[in-house]
Design goal:
alpha/beta, eight-stranded parallel beta sheet, 11 helices, binds alpha-D-galactopyranose
Length: 409
């Protein structure tokens, strides 16, 4: 019965669109399509915490929590339902949502999320099935894109399972064309796990592309046998990809595991700080409805987020390496820099360092601010002294001393 209701709702939802059949969607130009995600997308995705356990009630609750927690105020925008919202196709090939879990249909969820001032994202797959074995988009790309546009979808994550030897460029190019033809601005998130080096071909096709296999809620892969990667593994795999990122086309080191699983407080901080340094999409993956204060304070650190969202859109690179201690630098707009001391070791790092030794700074004089303590900690003409915990960071922002502060402090 519920299933019939869901199908009925979907049909009713499409009636106005069908009535206007003659009035075709105005396709987006390539320029309009590209003019999205000029800073890394920020939001929440269901997969890391809920896997297939998704429902309209949960998604709407997450939208409420994104607003009430203040996450919306610091820039989080998309609520994305990952795999398992879909169960079937109807006789005409339209995708059908799970009637038990989405009794009011997908547009109802999108409308609710929009009513909160947020945006709605959805998931599909290049192949005839998704990674969880639900119906994929192969052969239905244009129809699915139309369904997304009519449902009010703002973001599509597009996976790479059951692809039947599909060529990745063709598969993602086809969906990009379908999205443009459907006429609604939809951010296109390519998820082929870095398997065909999307950083070499995906600029202009998608706005972000996964660079690795799936992230797990742990620091390093170690003896976990499920094939997922740890936070540190993923940082290393992204290290040399900085030349490929920029406004509208981002390397995606996968969704955040902040607040999930085995990660310690310091590891959660380092995970978030390094994603900001990497100019990564910030898609939180924890249960926003019940997050502890300490996790909330990490996810809403405005000064770290400002580094991620800087309009220059540069991804950090390693400037100085001293064994398992690294100094990452990210050029920011207005001649500022983010500098992150990253302690990968198992011991504390008793830092006593002259920042003038960082080649990129060219000996310039900067005011230094600690972005986790929210404190000015001196200038680059004096050594920076700090204790950085194992698997922790000291993340700083450097402002040329001659430039007056810009209301940050
Ligand atoms: C793949 C993706 C994940 C998630 C699952 C869903 O593994 O990489 O992020 O979307 O599929 O099945």
């Amino acid at each position: 019965m519920k299933r019939i209701l869901c199908i009925l709702t979907a049909v009713l939802m499409m009636l106005p669109a069908l009535a206007q059949k003659a009035e075709k969607a105005t396709p987006l130009t390539q320029e309009e399509f590209l003019n999205q995600a000029l800073t890394p997308p920020m939001g929440w995705n269901s997969w890391n915490c809920f896997h297939c356990n998704v429902s309209e009630e949960m998604l709407m609750g997450m939208a409420d929590a994104m607003v009430s927690s203040g996450m919306k105020d610091v820039g989080y925008e998309y609520i994305v339902v990952d795999d398992c919202w879909q169960v079937d196709r109807d006789a005409d090939g339209w995708i059908v949502c799970d009637p038990e879990r989405f009794p009011h249909g997908i547009k109802h969820v999108a409308d609710y999320i929009h009513s909160k001032g947020l945006k709605f994202g959805i998931y599909s797959c290049v192949g005839d099935k998704t990674c969880a074995g639900r119906p994929g988009s192969q052969g239905h790309e244009f129809q699915d894109a139309l369904f997304y546009a009519r449902s009010g979808v703002d973001y599509l994550k597009y996976d790479f399972c059951y692809k039947n030897r599909a060529n990745s460029w063709n598969a993602y190019h086809t969906m990009r064309e379908a999205l443009k033809a459907a006429g609604r601005p939809i951010v296109f998130s390519i998820c082929e796990w870095g398997s065909t080096k999307p950083w070499e071909w995906a600029e202009g096709i998608g706005h972000l592309w996964r660079t690795t296999g799936d992230i797990g809620e742990f620091w390093i892969k170690g003896d976990k046998k499920d094939g997922r990667l740890g936070v540190l593994d993923i940082i290393d795999l992204n290290r040399d990809l900085y030349p490929f990122a920029g406004p509208g086309h981002w390397n995606d080191p996968d969704m955040l595991e902040v607040g999930n699983g085995d990660l310690t407080y310091d590891e959660n901080v380092a995970h978030f700080a390094m994603w900001c340094m990497l100019a990564a999409p910030l898609m939180s993956g924890n249960d926003l409805r019940s997050m502890p204060d300490e996790i909330h304070s990490i996810l809403t650190n405005k000064e770290a987020i400002a580094v991620d969202q800087d309009s220059l859109g540069v991804q950090a690179h390693v400037s100085v390496e001293m064994g398992d201690k690294q100094i990452w630098v990210k050029k920011l707009s207005g001649d500022e820099w983010a500098v992150c001391f990253f302690n990968r070791s198992e011991k504390e790092w008793n830092l006593n360092y002259n920042m003038m030794d960082i080649p990129e700074l060219e000996g310039g004089l900067y005011d230094v601010r600690d972005l986790w303590e929210h404190k000015d900690i001196g200038k680059t003409d004096r050594n920076v002294i700090a204790t950085i915990p194992s698997h922790g960071v000291l993340m700083t922002r450097l402002t040329p001393t001659t430039v007056k502060s810009k209301g940050r402090r």
